[in-house]
Structures are given as structure tokens and as C-alpha cells.
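Q: What structure does this chain adopt?
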Amino acid sequence: MVTFTTVGLLAYGIIALLFLENTFQEGHVRTRTWDVGRVLGLLLCLVWPLTLVGVVLVAFWQRQRLRISR
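A:
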């Protein structure tokens, strides 16, 4: 059975992997060495989609608070 959580995690994984691959290829084309900036950029590709999750949760909680106060 497919749940909302499963779909969300799958979407998160796909988005993170697409940006990770793009960042990796960008560094490869420029023949850059594996310095701190490149590794940090790759790690941030895995973390930034959490910002989207945070924005959605804050909007949901605000909507719930508004509904309760009415």
C-alpha cells in the first residue's frame, strides 16, 4: 500500500538526486578537485529540499491556527 509518506519520501529522493547529479557533473566538467566547497555543495543538495518541507509545514500549521481561532 502506498502512503502519503512513501510518496513524499520518493519525491524528496528524486529531487535531491537530480540536484546532486547536476552539481556533481558541474564539478566534473570544470575538472575541479575534491575540495571542501565541492563536498559541501554536494551535501547541501541532499539537505535543501528539507527547506521546502519546512515551508509546507509552517503554512499548514498557520492555516490550522487560523481555522481554530475563527
